[in-house]
Design a protein that fits this description.
Shape: elongated
CATH class of one domain: Mainly Beta
Order of helices and strands: HEEHEEHEEHEEEEEEHHHHH
Strand content: 15-25%
Number of strands: 12
Helix content: 40-55%
Distance between the termini: 27 Å
CATH architecture of one domain: Roll
Structural class: alpha+beta
């Protein structure tokens, strides 16, 4: 079942992403010969007025074959230049490239609204207040106590952060879980500070300081608050994914990256928790929304092989007031594809180690 759920989620995310490119490209008159979900041999295809719509055997991706793309000119010898991706204005080209990202974010928004429409409630995350301190834990040994309000934290590199919720605190600290952190506390009107170094918890294999959060609250929703809550949840997820990407560029969290194998395993574990049809739908929506946002922001990275990188190249054309050297553009795109392939191999190897050898 994990593989089935994974294929369904990935296919939906890719379909929506590529559909965004297709709709905007066609609206600007760009000739699109094929719209495909997946790669490899065709399992099914339908010939439209000028575009072939196909489902392919390998469900890890998809594409829209547009006239004028790098290495595509020989496939569209009779298409007028005005109907190629290079033949439309740079601004229109940028809109075509960003359309897939926008559609992934829109999909996440629709799914989050769907979740809150089903539950009719929202979870209010607990404030950064310590509910309990485990005896003899690092937090207990330095003097942290239950009901302490965490107003600010300072990391070992000197950066500070004021958490709005306990979960936000956990997300931030998880970026470098073994490093010492200084907690600025409000206790009975007094301001205190404690430096805590997390200790490895043998049972979970995680670095912990030994504090717990208050339980979350459930708040009922109406039609209008369902919409606003869906929007705020989408924005929060975007913020968390963006933070994770920023940490990756800092070299933090590389060992936590997951590829298809890791995502499939996580999908199976999460979906396996469902106790009925309602929970299955909710978990499916939540996972799909999360993956869709990850795909959107990953594609926004300024890497030539991705939509974000193609936007940067197009902006360079605008600044240069003319097309870039075709050979250099193709080399940049192919080079970045090669680097992404190497990253994919690295991540897949990590997934294999984690899944089959317990991360050792």
């Amino acid at each position: 079942m994990a593989l089935l759920y994974f294929i369904l989620i990935l296919s939906l995310v890719v379909f929506v992403h590529e559909l965004g490119h297709l709709i905007v490209a066609k609206s600007f008159g760009v000739y699109c010969s094929e719209f495909a979900v997946g790669f490899g041999p065709k399992l099914f295809s339908y010939q439209g007025k000028e575009t072939t719509y196909s489902l392919r055997a390998i469900p890890f991706g998809g594409f829209v074959a547009m006239a004028g793309e790098p290495n595509q000119s020989e496939n569209f010898p009779e298409v007028a230049f005005e109907r190629t991706i290079k033949g439309i204005t740079p601004i229109k080209r940028i809109l075509v490239m960003l359309a897939g990202i926008f559609m992934n974010l829109f999909l996440a928004l629709v799914l989050f609204i769907g979740i809150f429409s089903i539950t009719q409630t929202k979870v209010v995350l607990p404030k950064p207040i310590i509910a309990e301190v485990r005896e003899n834990s690092p937090a207990d040994l330095v003097g942290l106590k239950a009901n302490d309000l965490i107003i600010k934290v300072k990391y070992h590199d000197g950066t500070t952060f004021s958490p709005a919720t306990f979960n936000e605190l956990v997300e931030k600290v998880a970026a470098d879980p073994s490093a010492p952190v200084t907690y600025y506390i409000e206790r009975a009107g007094s301001k205190l500070e404690f430096e805590v170094t997390p200790a490895l918890d043998e049972a979970s294999g995680r670095y912990l300081i030994g504090i717990t959060a208050l339980p979350p609250e459930l708040v009922p929703l109406n039609f209008f608050t369902i919409i606003t809550t869906g929007i705020s949840e989408t924005l929060l997820m975007i913020k968390l994914v963006a933070l994770a990407l920023i940490n990756l560029f800092k070299g933090v969290g590389l060992n936590q990256l997951s590829g298809p194998l890791g995502i499939m395993q996580t999908t199976g574990e999460v979906m396996g928790q469902a106790a009925g049809i309602k929970e299955t739908i909710l978990l499916f929506f939540s996972l799909t929304a999360s993956i869709s946002i990850n795909v959107a922001l990953f594609n926004l990275l300024p890497i030539p092989a991705f939509d974000g990188g193609r936007v940067i190249l197009t902006v360079a054309e605008i600044i240069k007031k003319g097309p870039l050297d075709k050979k250099w553009e193709e080399r940049l795109i192919l080079g970045s594809f090669f680097l992404m392939l190497m990253l994919f191999v690295f991540i897949t190897w990590q997934d294999i180690i984690k899944i089959f050898f317990g991360g050792k």
